[in-house]
Amino acid sequence: MRLSESINFTSYKDIVTNGRQPLLHAILYILYPLYAVFPKSEQRLLIDGVLEHLAYQLDNDNFYERFKLAQLATKTELQNKFLQYENLSDDKGMQSVFVNYFDVNIIIYSPFDDTFKVIPTCFDYVNKGCIVIEKRNNKYYPFQYNDESSHRSSPTHIIHVNDFEDIKSEINNYTKRKKYSLKPYYTYKINDLIEVAQQFHISTSKPGRYNRTVNKTKRELYDELTMIL
Fold first, then answer.
1. Are residues 132 and 191 in the same domain?
2. Per-residue buried b or exposed e for 158-188, using 16+ beta carbons within 10 Å of the residue's own CB
3. What is the pLDDT of residues 174-217, one digit of tens each?
4. Does 99 share its domain with 129?
5. Residues 118, 123, 127: CA angle, nearest 5 degrees
6. How far is CA 195 from CA 47, 198, 200, in A?
7. Per the domain annotation, does 89 fall within a domain?
8. Directed axis angle between helix 92-102 and helix 22-31, to 10°?
9. What are the distances in angstroms from CA 208 to CA 205, 211, 213, 215?
10. What is the DSSP string of 148-213?
């Protein structure tokens, strides 16, 4: 079952994406229901306030060190990005700050190929709640989840990993990737990399000329694997 068939997705007409900070906009929409009823001008002010708060949060309670952000960027680099109010939706450092500050996993869902990207909290992510956000044409939209078995009067956006097999599978796959150590490029033969790529659900082919499919090179496979391992 596709995720879009198992979770009731909020209508696009009810959600206006924010062009300046689309991912943060979707996160706030999910976690703070009152945010949705704010006028756009107030939403913009709140987003700017959150970015400024997070910039200074990096200095508090060893946040930067505790959540191992040094592997993604220096503290000054991250703070400058937040204080300049840049669109940081695809920035790994920003994403890591978000999930650890809000203490929730984020699942980015792409409906075109029915794939997931997991952005987990640094600690105990398997037992944390998840929010699911659809990425479509570089815009982000929140899913809402109707659980008929719990007889809730209203839907929720927070779900548990075990609620859906596809999400659980992806979290487990992330855990498996995290434990895998990629060796230096020169130690691999092309067939070795093909086997590793298949293990982590990375396509070993790509579109070629004349509408044909061709195999990816050893370098291409290794570079893709370094992005997730």
1. no
2. ebebeebebbeebbebbeebeeeeeeeeeeb
3. 666 666 778 889 899 999 999 888 877 678 888 888 888 889 99
4. yes
5. 70
6. 44, 5, 9
7. yes
8. 10
9. 9, 6, 5, 9
10. GGGT-SS-BSEEEGGG-HHHHHHHHHHHHHHH--PPPGGG--HHHHHHHHHHTT--SEEE-GGG-E
- Residue 156: exposed, middle, or buried by beta-carbon count in 10 A (0-12, 13-18, 19+)? middle
The confidence score (pLDDT) of residue 22 equals 87
pTM equals: 0.65
Q: Are 165 and 172 in contact (CB under 8 A)?
A: no
Judge whether 169 lies within some domain. no
- Does residue 172 form part of some domain? no
Window from 9-13, 102-106, 114-118 with minimum mean pLDDT: 9-13
132 and 188 assigned to the same domain: no
Find the farthest-apart pair of alpha carbons in the chain and give their distance in angstroms, rounded: 58
Q: In the prediction, which pLDDT does 144 show?
A: 60
Domain that holds residue 187: 180-228
Q: Are residues 7 and 103 in the same domain?
A: yes
Instruction: Quote the number of domains for the chain.
Output: 2
pLDDT at 200: 74
Q: Which two tokens stand for residue 150?
A: 């719990």
Domain identity same for 93 and 198: no
Give the pLDDT confidence score for residue 96 in this predicted structure. 93
Using the structure block, give the residue that is written with the tokens 């989840």. Answer: 145
Is 148 within a domain?
A: yes
Residues 144 and 184 in one domain: no
What CATH number does the domain containing 106 carry?
3.90.70.80
What stretches of 37-157 show up as alpha helix (H) in DSSP?
40-57, 63-66, 75-83, 92-102
